Amino acid sequence: MIVCRPPGDETRQRVKFTDDRVCKSHLLDCCPHDILAGTRMDLGECTKIHDLALRADYEIASKERELFFELDAMDHLESFIAECDRRTELAKKRLAETQEEISAEVSAKAEKVHELNEEIGKLLAKAEQLGAEGNVDESQKILTEVEKVRAKKKEAEEEYRNSMPASSFQQQKLRVCEVCSAYLGLHDNDRRLADHFGGKLHLGFIQIREKLDQLRKTVAEKQEKRNQDRLRRREEREREERLSRRSASRTRDRRRSRSRERRRRRSRSASRERRKSSRSRSRDRHRRHRSRSRSHSRGHRRVSRDRSAKYKFSRERASREESWECGRSERGAIDWRLESSNGKSASRKSEEKEAGEI
Description:
One of its GO terms (biological process) is mRNA splice site recognition. With 358 residues, this protein is an all-alpha fold.
């Protein structure tokens, strides 16, 4: 069996309330297209999606988290009210061009009559609403206030009539409603005023303006809360950064102290090693000095002994040479004598030999 679903169900399944195609003013129940529907200023269908199921989903989700759809709805209503105020100003300029110029005093009296008409219309609309709701006593009280305002209006109209010519007074003086930009006549009867101020158009504009004021207040509060949360998060982040910097500085200090301690230990060990090496070198130098001194003393003694030995040897040699020279001279004399004697004997022998031969 095939079940046919209406187009709304398919759209609801495809689109979420967070989609940009969904009207945020509709989710907050303040879209002008819904409020002014069926009035003289009916705006027609909204260009965005309107769905009551999506509004229900939004109401459930908004209780769990902040979605800030109020900002979108506020922008929408502000643009709509700005357009309405622009039309009101244009209507005022048009009335100023078409109606006769009156003095400031007469204008003030006419403005007073208009204000009393507006008050009567609002009171009558409220009395009718209370009567429809069944609150007859409150409705009667309001009707009593209406009679009092009517008496004030009659006095204001008399003042206005006395300040103007009869021909000008009979001319209909119009006024633009500041709420819905509709035209109001100075001589409108109570029924016309009640229909206007109790009508859907006027009440719809009042609802839109009140909703806009409420949205502005809500957006301001949420923005203030968001700013406070952002400021608190920033302070927490700065606090964490300060703590992290402090911990990092402490860690650096500990590392520096450790490194200084290691350098001190290294310097102490190095100084000890230097002292040891200096002591060992001094001992070595002392030993070498002692050995050199010993060797020097030994060499000195040896040199002295050698010198003494050489001296003795030289003395002995000199004495030997002297003795040898003396002996040589003596041997020379002896040899000369021997040679001379040998010569004589040889010559004698040779003479004897020669004589024997002869």
